[in-house]
Amino acid sequence: MNFSFKTFTGVVVLSTLLAFGSAEARDLVVYNGGDVTSLDPQKISGDWEDRVDGDIFEGLFTEDAEAKPILGVAKSYETSKDGLTWTFKLRDDAKWSDGQPVTAEDFVFAFQRLMDPKTASEYAYIQYPIKNAEAINTGKIKDFSQLGVKALDDKTLEITLEHPIPYYRSLLCHFTAYPLPKHLIDKVGDDWVKIGNIVTDGPYKPVEWVPGSHVLTAKNPYWPGKDKLDIDGVRFLSMEDNAAGFRRYQAGEIDIMTAYPKDQYTFIQKNLPGQGHFTPFAGLYYYLFNEQKPPFDDKRVREALSKAIYREVIGPKVLTSGEPAAFGWVPPGMDNYPKEGARFKWAKEPYPQRVKEAKALLKEAGYGPDHPLDVTLSYNTSDNHKRIAIAIAAMWKPLGVNVKLVNAEVKVHYANLREGDFQVARAGWLADFNDPINFLDLLKGGNEMNYGKWNNKEYNALLKQASTESDLKKRATLLKQAEQIALDDDAAMPIYFYLSENLVSPKVKGFKDNVFDKHRTRWLSLDK
Amino acid sequence: MLTFVLKRLASTIPVILIAITVCFFILRLAPGGPFDQERALPPDVLANLRAYYHLNDPLIVQYLRYLLRLAQLDLGPSFVTKDFTVAQQIAIGLPYTLIVGGSAFFLAIVGGITAGIYGALYQNRSADWLIAIVAMAGLVVPNFLVAPILQLVFGVHLAWLPVGGWGDGSIRFLAMPVVVLALPHIARISRLMRGSLIETLNSNFIKTATAKGIGRRRVVLKHALRPALTPVVSYLGPAASYLLTGSIVVEQIFGIPGIGRYFVQAALNRDYGMVLGTVVFYMALIVVLNLLVDLAYAWLDPKVRQR
């Protein structure tokens, strides 16, 4: 028994060494989903990482309580007439959490580092509208000073764009546009991001990070608005088990859940009134066709399958959590877009009518009872994806379509999509910034995310025209036209629009639902 | 004795090497890579990333580079978690796993052996049956069911214990995960112990001891227990390696930042560095634990010692 006793002694010693304090009274506890992979804003990609970095960093612009862009580190800005040159005056009291001033040079440094191929930033491409950014990131230009970001003096920054973009303020809120502490990175290099070294310029700063457990933040004593912050810090829990998280929420250990177990939807609505914030959110769930190969190079087949999906029941009955049916490609509520986006022409037809038409279309295309259409439907492993796939297979059955379901883990699924190894496949998309172009780009010819390889000249031309149009209204019209073309040609099958999945404890005040589902802690307060 | 230990350790090196090799190449054969994800990366960005992790080199060069690093005890970078290397992540997670797993191991031994002795001494009486029933339940009901039930009862409804999290690492936070982890092992050890002790108690040397007039307590504890422990000890090696490498289910449900989840998540993430790192670590642990079991045998059984 010596062995076990030794282990036990070791365990006791270790546990004493490891003991650390529990949550403070004014700390907000957030169920944050996946493990944060980095605090470096140029090395992250997920919304769970954005939640942490969005609290600890602040760009030229930042989000208000409803995720609309407002001035951040910039106190004022001017745009040139052609919309290409943006000049920002930085706040005089903007400081890093070590008391050093935030300078224009910090932004220049950050953007150059972002575009440096050696940084290997996954999200660098989102800032490609900056002049020469793409050329630098792809190694075509080696001289970083040619990047369209210049410091005119300590507190004046000038950004030059390749072409005017109406959503640029929203893009400046993105984590790829945060400044970085040049003075620190010059000194310690990549280690700047380690707890103990890291300094940030947002309302909070990270003070503890245990991988697999949590990131803990505290107020940044040098942030100009620190006196208005109600919450002292946030404990972002790395947890992916929604059911376990929900039990902790029920016990009062968690204040905000950013995802919930869907099978508890009815229970939550009944027993926790007002706590479920399930509101429209800039995300699209869709199926795409492999349009390189028969039978989906035939528009009639695509239209038939799309028409036969009874979208109205997917959210309420299949998922049971009420997601709205998608009859268009762009989720409702996006900025710079008409309230009513484009819709399928047949969207208002009753379902039996749609099925009838779908049958006729398939017959026309040469399929029917004696020559059934065999379809392979691929999805990445998840209960909800499976449920939807089974439901849709059943909806296609009456058309004489035989569906073979194929599921694969997420990495394999997307590798298959990239290689064109599928017939019909599930995909989803969440907006990175508040503009419909996020979604319309998915169907653009040549875009690597356009897995189905639908390629429509008229569509591509409209997007190109819109990209140089500085009149927002005209641009919106062009984009809506493009969306209608994609729908008319059944480029893909939109199925439903996402709903946000937040559970918010009644103790938390100031939580405002928004289409972007961003809720920075500075706008929240906590009752004791 | 020392030569025995050294010999045993040396003989495991080729085994570890083969396992690393197989693991390295199988992993690369698996479809999908670390950078395949919902948001496809632009080709240039992907090229930057692949260059950063040396994924463009021929596979054999990557393999040799890995071995060279390993020889310097460097497990390399993680492809997913950018701010920590593989070794750092294991080092951070390991203490949590050791505390939870070690406590569960201890509980399993004490609980299992006590229950086993009790069952053997009060054979086929109601207490024995009760233990058997509880043990079977512990063995059969999976931990992903036991854990939520305990959480709902003791955490949500009775509010006696925190539902999850590490907190200050006190017994309140540890109680449920440790019990959940230990339960199947308590069950198995108690069955092994009971069976083995009954057999030993029926053997001649025990009958002789009893005939000599030695008290029941002394016969059991002094004479019967030690030989009866042998099957239990052989079970402890695998049990320890299982418990000390953590359990993804228990860690996720209770929010414990141990290393158990890496075994599964790293593979799903195609985090090549992390998968190899955990495999190397796991094998090293098994080697050491098996060695300890062998030494324990020697202590328990004089016949082994003389060999």
Automatic annotation (TrEMBL), chain A:
GO molecular function annotations of the record: peptide transmembrane transporter activity
Segment forming the signal sequence: 1-25
Keyword line: Signal, Transport
InterPro entries associated with the record: Peptide/Ni-bd (IPR030678), SBP_5 (IPR039424), SBP_5_CS (IPR023765), SBP_5_dom (IPR000914)
Pfam families linked: SBP_bac_5
A GO term from the CC aspect: ATP-binding cassette (ABC) transporter complex
SUPFAM superfamilies, per the entry: Periplasmic binding protein-like II
PROSITE patterns given in the database record: SBP_BACTERIAL_5 (PS01040)
Protein location: Periplasm
Example GO biological process: peptide transport
Domain named Solute-binding protein family: residues: 69-449
PANTHER family listed in its UniProt record: PERIPLASMIC BINDING COMPONENT OF ABC TRANSPORTER, PERIPLASMIC OLIGOPEPTIDE-BINDING PROTEIN-RELATED
Family, similarity comment: Belongs to the bacterial solute-binding protein 5 family.
Protein name (database record): Peptide ABC transporter substrate-binding protein
Organism: Jiella flava
TrEMBL record, chain B:
Keyword S-adenosyl-L-methionine attached: no
CDD domains: TM_PBP2
SUPFAM superfamilies: MetI-like (SSF161098)
Entry's Gene Ontology cellular component terms: plasma membrane
GO annotation, biological process: transmembrane transport
Compartment annotation: Cell membrane
InterPro entries: BPD_transp_1_N, MetI-like, MetI-like_sf
Coiled coil: none
Primary localisation category: membrane
Ranges annotated as spanning the membrane: 12-30, 98-122, 129-150, 170-187, 232-254, 274-300
Residue ranges of domain ABC transmembrane type-1 in the record: 94-293
Family affiliation: Belongs to the binding-protein-dependent transport system permease family.
Name the UniProt record assigns to this protein: ABC transporter permease subunit
